[in-house]
Request: fold
Amino acid sequence: MLTTSTFLPTSASVDLTALVHNLTQFRKTLVPGCDIMAVVKANAYGHGAVETAKALIRQGVSRVAVVSIEEGIALRQAGINAPIVILGPVFPEQFPDLFAHQLTPVVSDAGTLPKLAQAASSFQNPYPIHLKVETGMGRLGLTQDELANLFGSQGFPRTLHLEGLMTHLADADGPAPDTTQEQVARFRKAIGIVTASGFRVPLIHAANSGGAVRFQEAQFSLVRPGIMLYGYHTLPKSVPVPELKPVLSLRTSIAQLRTVPPGHKVSYNGTFTAKQPTTIAVLPVGYADGVSRRLSNRGCVLIHGQRAPITGLVCMDMIMVDVTKIVGATIGDEAVLIGSQGADRITADDIAEWTGTIAYEVLCTIGPRIPRQYHSS
Reply:
């Protein structure tokens, strides 16, 4: 157990005030009556699912979503009593844990439904589920024909309560709106199939962060924001977005300094060779912590408010940076991988650009051995 006096050479700082700010800004984009189901899967995109979920629930978020039974159980064991929706596939072997922890499954496979209905037959009241419809993502979901059969000749199981109907947008952040508009049209047909059978579905949802902001027609009664809660988005520049603040910063400390002569190589395989006397700072963080090897000889960190280039290959537990031009750099000095220092800032978007990915991956890969510290600014 870490105490308040424990020195942490490497840590991630999570600003809950920024989280609340982003939630508030996102809510301003919603139509009246549209509620939020906050997505806290993948350890809340690297921010820490338990503390993030608790902070959002304190702000009136009515339910949260994760991807697996295991993630849902972890939230329950942390004392979170709000509805938890499992977005990913659920297998029959997991039904006992699903029921024991009162988790709400998303059923996306027609073959799963009768098995779940049979397993839920011992309950006094129908067990709540959400149905997922495939409208163009090409991933999970019932087809239109399967949905029509379920609410037609087959009949929806009486031991289950259809709490929600959902789909997932495949191209909400793409350059053109056509794909999303087509998906919304298909989803409306699916809603029509269900409601024509006499079902009233309380929760209808399709939109993620970008979908909700860009396509008001995709908001329905519920939306599923994820990345925007954490301060980022991937929408085209032509689309107005809420004012967002990055929630997470990642910092470490200089562990050692050495000056290497011209011709000296640094790190594995000698991909960096000093061309002049070069001062190298060793930082105790590496790809096991989520610092991508694609940052080798490409990325940088902030030390004394200046950019220090990463030199050589990123190691499992360490990286080396060039501090030759940073006067006064010494052991113990703070090095910022994500966040602000002085007048400069490095964001997850910056790292994503350097490594050819998206901010989602940068944040999600921050490893569990990095302690998260939570604060309100």
